[in-house]
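quick one: fe (ii) ion bound model?
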Amino acid sequence: MDMTFRFARIRGNANVYTVRNDTESPDMSTNGTDLIQAIREDHQQIKSLLETVRTQLDAEAFQKLVSKLAVHETAEEEVVHPLTRNAPGGEPVVEQRLEEEDKGKKALSELEKMGVQDPRFPASFEQLRTDVLAHAQHEEQDEHPKLARSVDAKKLESLARVFRSAENTAPTHAHSMSPESATGNIAVGPFVAIADRARDAIRNAMRDERG
Ligand SMILES: [Fe+2]
Ligand SMILES: [Fe+2]
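yep, here:
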């Protein structure tokens, strides 16, 4: 596929995403979407959830954000970053992204423990929001062009399906996401639990994709 055309499609698509309603089942088809578009649509949804949590300090919105980030970052670690590593000059780009993701996970875990009612939450959340937005921008500016140049269009389309395969592993309602495990141990928070399920789903989808 012509590179200019592909980037034009990406830019156009980023403006028309819709946030999925809770009652809808996750869309497993990609309708011709490629991996880079799928990631950028996610970034728009994450941006919108960050804004909702910032302005409303709503527990359910925060839970949706945690869930979205857990699935998104896991899918990037499993599907996207390994491809970038193989691209020319990709190694340092991936290392920087992983450092940012690690920092984000730690901050999110602190916020999960705090809860939205904690007086420290707004300031800590604002730091996370700034970091997550910068991280997404770095991916779009530094990582995606490497993918677009080094991975063929057909593979990017099939990997969009793999990338999306983890979405239905995340609970869609906050009330089904009790932070307590069966043993009452809250150390395994929703982020960790969702990321684990997402990883399994993606690895299975990856095996199916390879046939
Ligand atoms: Fe990321
Ligand atoms: Fe991302």
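Helices lie at 3-14, 35-56, 59-86, 90-114, 121-150, 153-164, 190-210.
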